[in-house]
Design goal:
The chain has 451 residues and is of the alpha/beta class. It folds into three domains: 201 residues, FAD/NAD(P)-binding domain; 109 residues, FAD/NAD(P)-binding domain (3-Layer(bba) Sandwich); 105 residues, 2-Layer Sandwich (Enolase-like, domain 1), CATH 3.30.390.30. Helices cover 31% and strands 24% of the residues. It has twelve helices and 22 strands. The strands form five sheets. Strands 1, 2, 3, 4, 5, 6 and 17 form a seven-stranded mixed beta sheet that branches. α3 runs antiparallel to α4 and α3 crosses α6. The radius of gyration is 24 Å and the shape is globular. The termini are far apart.
């Protein structure tokens, strides 16, 4: 008979935490989980899913216009933002219910409230003392808002998804995937968008792809402002004045920060038990997601290894296999496909060109840039760009990068090939599907001359 209330207690009911709790419970142990907000976590309720629903909505702005080129006659469309948000809320409510049922059907006991460590086996959850043999932290991350005068007048992606009216003007502070995704959403649905970029757009992504996106954003009417940081936000009559460290003044109806995320550890009491943290506040773990305290583990964004929902789920499965199935395995972060649902979208897998050069010194680069077949009739100023990066000594493909329609779907398939070690010769030997954009990846033959 265990001396603890639970064999495993999970902090955070996001995608990683829910998967770990369910799979651990399936091994026959007693599992509990605590969530201070709603079961489902960031991706399901405040991130990937609702955001992509808004991306779909934004795409219709072009689709209605493009239909005329194909013979359709449609009345000038109008958009009801409040209807979109209500429909999105209905879907996230449905998903929240599904996740609750998944946990209950697996025998996992759900506790509403935030968890705080009293010692390494004891938690306080909404005033209730809970003990557990092992504890898994999967509390995720939250948007970062700088401590500046007027920060209370700003919103983050959390609030952006719940606005009941669309701002006529919005200033978005940030240069990562969240910033460019929301810039595209608001711009396509009719807002005047200013994107404030401190240094470079999409740091960590291939530069050619980032440059293509920059040009596409500007073509869509988004104003990009480079350099400096926001120093203050002042409330005016009916709008706000955003001031930058370089002396720029930007008038806007709404300010949104999308300048990174920070681990959700505030108030958790990690200082009470000596869990080691990284310099940025993320929880330090070993290759098996174990913290510096032997019975405490952590997965997902709170560890700041690779902040992607499928990765958190992968880490959860590795944790369960290691701890409860006696088959130790550590997460593998090689060739993880990812996407940016900007407009146009980006799909990528493997190393970008700079990282590839650091890895093997010299690389062969193949690129293709073209107007998608769809727009030969619409005449829209949209282009797709694709890039292959190859190790010239082994012929192995190190990276595939694309910006353009269906980029995310294409990158998923390419991820399998790169994970299996595909070479450029394998790509060349593959017959393409014509006419598609994806066939470009198997028909690029000419190496880029400069390296």
């Amino acid at each position: 008979m265990s001396n603890y209330d639970y064999d495993l207690f999970v902090i955070g009911a996001g995608s990683g935490g829910v998967r770990a709790a369910r799979m651990a419970a399936a091994t026959g142990i007693k599992v509990g989980i605590a969530e201070g907000r709603r079961v489902g976590g960031t991706c399901v309720l405040r991130g990937c899913v609702p955001k992509k629903l808004l991306v779909y909505a934004a795409h219709y702005a072009h689709d209605f216009e493009d239909a005329a080129a194909y013979g359709w006659r449609v009345r000038p469309p109008t958009h009801e933002w409040a209807h979109l948000i209500a429909a999105k809320n209905q879907e996230t409510d449905r998903l929240n219910g599904i996740y609750i049922n998944l946990l209950k059907n697996a025998g996992v006991e759900i506790h509403d409230g935030y968890a705080r460590f009293l010692d390494n086996h004891t938690l306080d959850v909404a005033g209730r003392k809970i003990t557990a043999k092992r504890i898994l932290i999967g509390s995720g991350a939250r948007p970062f808002v700088p401590d500046i005068p007027g920060k209370e007048y700003s919103i983050t992606s959390d609030e952006a998804l719940d606005l009941m009216s669309r701002p006529e003007r919005i200033a978005i502070v940030g240069a990562g995937y969240i910033a460019v995704e929301f810039a595209g959403i608001f711009a396509e649905l009719g807002s005047e968008v200013t994107l404030l970029v401190r240094s470079e757009l999409l740091r960590g992504f291939d530069r050619d792809v980032a440059n293509e996106l920059e040009a596409a954003l500007e073509r869509s009417g988004i104003k990009l402002v480079y350099g400096g940081e926001v120093s203050s936000i002042k409330k005016q009559d009916g709008d706000y004045l955003l001031e930058t460290s370089e002396g720029r003044n930007i008038e806007t109806d709404l300010v949104m920060f999308a300048a990174g995320r920070v681990p959700n550890i505030e108030g958790m009491g990690l200082e009470n038990i000596g869990v080691e943290l990284k310099s940025g506040g993320a929880i330090q773990v070993d290759e098996f997601s174990q913290t510096s305290v032997a019975n405490i583990y952590a997965i997902g964004d709170v560890t700041d290894r690779m902040a992607l929902t499928p990765v958190a789920i992968h880490e959860a499965m590795c944790f369960v296999d290691t701890v409860y199935k006696d088959t130790p395995r550590s997460p593998n972060y090689d060739f993880v496909p990812t996407a940016v649902f900007s407009q146009p979208p980006i799909g990528t897998v493997g190393l970008d060109e700079d990282a590839a050069k650091q890895h093997c010194g010299k690389v062969d680069v193949y690129t293709s840039r073209f107007r998608p077949m769809k727009h030969t009739l619409t005449k829209r100023d949209h282009f797709s760009f694709m890039k292959l990066i190859v190790n010239p000594e082994t012929n192995r493909v190190l990276g595939c990068h694309m910006i353009g329609d269906d980029a995310a779907e294409i990158a998923q398939g390419l991820g399998i090939a790169l994970k299996m070690g595909a070479t450029k010769a394998d790509f060349d030997a593959t017959i393409g599907i014509h006419p598609t954009a994806a066939e470009e990846f198997v028909t690029m033959r000419e190496k880029r001359s400069e390296n």
